[in-house]
Amino acid sequence: MMVSAKFEAVTVDYGYRGPSLIVGCSKIEFVAEAGLVTFLRGTNGSGKSSFFRALLNAAPLIGGHATILHNGSAISEPERIAVRELASRYEISYLPQSPSDALPAGMTLSTANQLWEKIHPTDPAEEWSDLKAFFEQLKHKDKESISGGQAQIISLYFAARRQADIYLLDEPSAYVSSENRSRITDSIRQLINKGCIVIVASHDDELLNDFQAQEKRIVTLA
Fold first, then answer.
1. End-to-end alpha-carbon separation of the chain, Å?
2. Which segments of the chain does DSSP mark as H helices, in order?
3. Which CATH entry fits the domain spanning 2-220: 2.40.160.60, 3.30.200.20, 3.40.50.300, 1.10.3210.10?
4. Per-residue pLDDT, 37
5. What is the pTM of this model?
6. Helix pair angle (181-193, 129-138), 10° resolution
């Protein structure tokens, strides 16, 4: 199990905008620790979503490293790897900014869930009873017939159940109604209580304030 992941000098190529330093030792260094939720904050265009895509090898990378510390019978020596190798070496579960992007078209949510479980190792659904109950109410529908907030919670159900080393959640409370917000907070808290590394990109002050100081770390991208 990971204890921490330190990101250094991750540089993403934006094409016509030119290279943009997202996380680097000269501007921002951060360590995402297991058992804490790391909030990435910043204005639109500061690179939060691009940083996530870089970790997934879904954005053009110029460079950058991640230093991984593992937990065994004793703390092992740090392992420093190129960020472009991260997704091939470790399991990363990702909740995209647009919730419908996580759900396949043309099939019921029940069928999508069956496919997800075949592709990825997942926790038993019973471990996520609240999200499972929400899913059960909608499982016979497809993504075109549910609201954006409902799609967000179903997408989180998929992402949270995946057994992973790192969880990347991009604006997880977007589109979610006030009565369902607690499902987002409770799910993130369940992940950090399991000792997972959780990184959340969010503009939502209410979500940030749902967590006590000892539960979170805040990183601001310029």
1. 31
2. 48-55, 86-89, 109-119, 129-138, 148-161, 181-193, 205-209
3. 3.40.50.300
4. 96
5. 0.88
6. 140
Spatial neighbors of 220 by CB under 8 A, at least 6 apart, are: 28, 41, 42
The residues pairing with 122 across neighbouring beta strands, listed in sequence order, are 162
Mean pLDDT, residues 6-17 taken together = 63
Alpha-carbon distance values, 196 to 3, 21, 68, 165 (Å): 8, 27, 13, 7
The domains of the chain are located at 2-220
- Strand, coil or helix: what is 116? helix
Q: Is the pLDDT of residue 39 over 50?
A: yes
Contact partners, residue 139, CB within 8 Å, separation at least 6: 108, 109, 110, 113
70-83-47-119 Cα dihedral, nearest 10 degrees? -80
Instruction: Say how far apart CA 185 and CA 183 lie, in whole Å.
Output: 6
pLDDT band at 20 (very low <50, low <70, confident <90, very high): very low
Mean pLDDT, rounded, for 90-114: 89
Do the beta carbons of residue 162 and residue 122 sit within 8 Å? yes
Q: 13 or 165, which is more confident?
A: 165
Residue type, 113: N
